[in-house]
UniProtKB/TrEMBL annotation:
Location(s), subcellular: Cell membrane
Higher taxonomy: Bacteria, Bacillati, Actinomycetota, Actinomycetes, Mycobacteriales
Protein name in the entry: ABC transporter permease
Topology in the lipid bilayer: Multi-pass membrane protein
PANTHER family: OLIGOPEPTIDE TRANSPORT SYSTEM PERMEASE PROTEIN APPC, PEPTIDE ABC TRANSPORTER PERMEASE PROTEIN
Membership in a protein family: Belongs to the binding-protein-dependent transport system permease family.
Main location: membrane
Limits of the ABC transmembrane type-1 domain: 100-289
Keyword flag Lipoprotein: no
Length: 298
């Protein structure tokens, strides 16, 4: 008796089932990266919380940051007041949350000013070369020779008080770093074959700069912006601490520390806890910035 091979008939048009993983490959890659770089994950969480403070302050602290209860003044940290209360009974945690909006907004404005002005200087310097390059780089060298915080302090003294003036002063103090990085990248990119080919084909120079040079030179500048964000937070808070920021009693991170310095012996939480918030944000921004820097391959 011969063996017969029985085959199941194949139905034309029937769907073919392909075994798929429960998690997409991209999600698995993110999970693996998070497990390896847990410090980066924690840093990102800290920055997201700080941004949440700035964008949705009432969600994180529903109280009034300007009104206090005199009977509750100088109370230590507790379940009712996580960061304690200040000398007139205001909740310090509420003031930290509501102060994030001004502090982080000033930081973003400062970094934005530094990116725009510094990138333009670096782009023109690297692309033009010759006398233009020499003059612009000597100006950048002068800016680099002055400590950024000292330069910002001099500028804000001339501009006057206010959060916007603090942001402008800090941004100008950071311009030189962005200009040097952009110039170095432009010098690297402008001699590439595709740039030479664009010039040889008759494309206008400003089109080549924007479409080819700038497009391939901005990545290290973005990485530098992530690194300098933490320094900008520290500089803005420092100028606010010195009294150049918003007019009291409007809360800012630097001014909160300044308000509590006279009560260090009796109410350490007034300076320590807002200071720890600034430290956490600065360290988180630096860690994220270095991660972006490593990712960009600089």
């Amino acid at each position: 008796m011969s063996d017969t091979l029985i085959r199941e008939p194949v139905r034309v048009g029937s769907p073919v089932r392909v075994a798929t993983s429960a998690k997409p490959a991209a999600l698995r890659s993110v999970v693996r990266t998070a497990r390896r770089n847990w410090v980066v994950v924690i840093s990102a969480a800290v920055l997201l919380i700080a941004i949440g403070f700035a964008v949705f302050p009432s969600f994180f602290a529903s109280g009034d940051p300007l009104q206090g209860v005199p009977a509750d003044k100088l109370q230590g940290p507790s379940l009712a007041h996580w960061f304690g209360t200040d000398n007139i009974g205001r909740d310090v945690y509420t003031r930290v949350v509501h102060g994030a909006a001004l502090s982080l907004t000033a930081t973003l404005v400062a970094v934005g000013i530094a990116i725009v002005i510094g990138s333009l200087i670096g782009l023109l310097s690297g692309a033009a070369g010759g006398l233009v390059d020499a003059v612009l780089m000597r100006i950048v060298d002068v800016l680099l020779s002055i400590p950024a915080l000292l330069l910002s302090l001099a500028l804000v003294t001339a501009l006057g008080f206010g959060t916007l003036n603090v942001a402008i002063a800090v941004g100008i103090g950071l311009v030189a770093n962005f200009a040097r990085v952009m110039r170095s990248e432009v010098l690297r990119v402008r001699h590439a074959l595709y740039v030479e080919a664009a010039f040889a084909s008759g494309v206008r120079w400003h089109t080549v700069l924007i479409r080819h040079v700038l497009r391939n030179a901005y990545a290290p500048v973005i990485a530098l912006a992530a690194v300098e964000f933490g320094m900008a937070v520290l500089a803005v808070s420092s100028l606010s601490f010195l009294g150049f920021g918003a007019v009291p009693p409007t809360p800012e991170w630097g001014s909160l520390i300044s308000e509590g310095r006279n009560y260090l012996a009796t109410a350490w939480w007034m300076t320590t806890l807002p200071g720890l918030v600034i430290v956490a944000v600065v360290l988180a921004a630096h860690r994220i910035g270095h991660a972006v820097d490593d990712r960009s391959g600089r």
